[in-house]
Write a structure and sequence with these properties.
Number of strands: 9
Order of helices and strands: EEEEHEEHEHEHHHEHH
Largest sheet: 7 strands, mixed
Shape: elongated
CATH class of the largest domain: Alpha Beta
Helix content: 25-40%
Radius of gyration: 31 Å
CATH superfamily of the largest domain: Nucleoside Triphosphate Pyrophosphohydrolase
């Protein structure tokens, strides 16, 4: 009786790389794809990646993939997930450890227009991707979900901007990452208000921020106007969660304190003029 030998699975490291590109109407969230030059899935688009070396770490392999695809160092790199379905690729079985990364938009545009840009690489909007090889569409969908989820509670979207940026640019990046077209429509409706348009506008310096400053927190910026409200988020939350009637109780407490203060004062002597003898 012969025992069939089972070939151990191979380990690949792939990267979902995101950046932002300015469009005609609004910015777009972009991702680079590589055209395959061998079977299976010849001439189809796929995520950049490669085999894990025998003496190579996972993060080092992800950095090598980024350098070969874009020639740039990421401003954010994090391990996303390990995809291990048995039917995700033909023989042999492949385990894919996927990283997701963010690149600054200005560096990406400069690299795309440079002479020695990598071949077989093209950037696509995440909203209009071509057919992808293997299960890479599932990987991209999961990476986009992870990016949008993390952008809702952290400053990660600032990694897509240059070192210095305006608050309007930061607001635009959050709109792009979160795919909040409804916010853009609301902003347009506010700008068409005749009462607002009739008011004179005064010129003011455009506020700027640096990466790592407190201005990069998304909760300090209004999603409609893009301006800071001037009230800390914790104070706004406590003001919204104030119990009904608490203001009346505070007024009654102040009146009681004033009455006690008047009662403790030294009484004034009465006038004796006209008193009976």
């Amino acid at each position: 009786m012969t025992v069939a030998t089972i070939e151990p699975p191979r380990v690949a490291v792939q990267a979902a790389i995101f950046s932002v590109r300015a469009g005609a109407d609004h910015d777009e969230l972009m991702i680079p794809l590589v055209r395959r030059t061998r079977e299976p899935y010849l001439d189809q688009w796929a995520l950049p990646g490669g085999w894990l070396g025998a003496e190579e770490g996972l993060e080092a392999a992800a950095g090598r993939t980024l350098a070969a695809t874009t020639g740039l160092a990421p401003s954010w790199l994090e391990q996303l997930y390990t995809f291990d379905s048995t039917d995700r690729s033909p023989d042999p079985r492949v385990l894919s450890v996927v990283y997701w990364a963010l690149l600054r938009s200005d560096l990406v545009e400069a690299q795309r227009t440079a002479a020695g840009s990598p071949e077989n690489v093209e950037w696509f909007p995440v909203e209009s991707l071509p057919d992808l090889a293997f299960d890479h569409r599932t990987i991209v969908d999961y990476a986009v979900w992870r990016l949008r989820n993390k952008a809702g509670y952290s400053r990660i979207a600032a990694a897509l901007l240059p070192d210095e940026f305006t608050l309007a640019e930061l607001r635009g990046v959050y709109e792009t990452v979160l795919a909040s077209a409804s916010i853009r429509r609301t902003s347009g409706a506010c700008s068409r208000d005749p009462k607002r348009s009739s008011r004179p506008r005064t010129s003011a310096p455009v506020p700027t921020a640096r990466r790592g400053s407190s201005a990069t927190t998304p909760t300090s910026i209004s999603p409609i106007s893009g301006r800071s409200s001037g009230i800390p988020a914790r104070a706004r939350a406590s003001r919204r969660t104030r119990r009904p009637g608490s203001g009346r109780r505070e007024c009654r407490a102040r009146r009681c304190v004033r009455r006690r203060a008047r009662g403790s004062r030294r009484p004034r002597p009465r006038s004796t003029a006209g008193a009976r003898s």
